[in-house]
Amino acid sequence: MTDQITFLGLGAIGLPMALRLHASGAAVTGVDPFPEPRERAAVAGLPAEAEPRSAASAGTVIVMVATGEQLDAALDGDPETGVSGLLDLMAPGAVLIVMSTVGPEAVRAAGARAAERGISTLDVPVTGGIAGVQAGTLRMLASGPSDVLDSRRPVLQAIGTIIDCGERLGDGQAYKAVNQLLCSVHIVAAAEALSLAGRLGLDEESVLAAMTAGAGQSWMLADRGPRMLAGLDAPVASAVGIFVKDTTLVADLAADLDIDLALLPVAAQRFAAAAELELARRDDSQVIRTYDA
């Protein structure tokens, strides 16, 4: 891959993704407004800049920010500080890849605005967390025009596995919403189960081993369970704050569709309670701490 790539958003998962892409031989420039992520990128050998100037010569621009508001800021820049936005910088014919979880409408709106500048857009939210990036098992829920997706398959395949979600922009985000509903409920269910085991006076590690070998097994129980038992110092693979954001996003979608998701509010309340305990930046497995009281 010789095409210049700009990767905007060098956070907890963005930086490992950019580094994996860089290690594949791609010419990647990272972008982040904060000095700490840029310093970590530089230490790892990835060129990084505070403003997305490299987007002017990039054939592909990947955005990995946290919220829809941050996506809009990346597209528009900041006229007050003179920071140019991606839509002003990117050349016609370039491809914008939105890998953030921001909801279908946010991506469709971004795609419509980009199209006015002759820029194509792909909607590619991811699932699998930092561990998935490091193991090469990250799953990318890709939607958008098939010819555009085909043109950027080598870029995406350097990061993980592509799941084709169809040509309608925003359907990748819709797939991700379903994913986050399942993940949030499964994590909270695992936390409840292990909390119940503790209250019953059982050895939680023995219970975890027994449950992951039986019909009560779930991927989240097997993955998050050990970190739940490890306590607050468990490594952060995906933060509590991500699920505070994403359960809100799914709830908004459900409200628009007039569908009663009975389990979602229960899971959302637990993640919100964990954030209130100042655990927003801790691993999402630490939602189990809400059962300690």
Please give the largest β-sheet: 6 strands, parallel
The mean pLDDT is: 95
Q: State the CATH architecture of the largest domain.
A: 3-Layer(aba) Sandwich
Number of DSSP strands?
11
Helix content: 40-55%
Beta-strand fraction estimate: 5-15%
Question: Termini distance?
Answer: 53 Å
CA-atom Rg in angstroms: 20 Å
What is the ordering of alpha helices and beta strands? EHEHEEHEEHEHEEHEHHEHHHHH
CATH topology of the largest domain: Rossmann fold
Shape: globular
Number of helices: 13
Strand order of the largest sheet: 3-2-1-4-7-8
**Total tally of structural domains:** 2
Low-pLDDT parts are none
* Assigned CATH class of the largest domain: Alpha Beta
Protein structure class = alpha/beta
What is the name of the CATH superfamily of the largest domain? NAD(P)-binding Rossmann-like Domain
InterPro entries: 6-PGluconate_DH-like_C_sf, 6PGD_dom2, 6PGDH_NADP-bd, HIBADH-like_NADP-bd, HIBADH-related, NAD(P)-bd_dom_sf
Pfam family, one: NAD_binding_11
GO molecular function: NAD binding; NADP binding; oxidoreductase activity
Protein name: 3-hydroxyisobutyrate dehydrogenase
Q: How would you sum up this structure in a few lines?
A:
This protein is α/β, with parallel strands linked by helices and 293 residues long. Helices cover 49% and strands 13% of the residues. It has helices at residues 14-23, 35-43, 68-76, 86-89, 104-116, 129-135, 146-151, 153-157, 171-199, 204-211, 219-230, 240-257, 264-276; strands at 4-8, 27-31, 48-49, 60-63, 77-78, 83-84, 95-98, 120-123, 126-127, 139-142, 161-164.
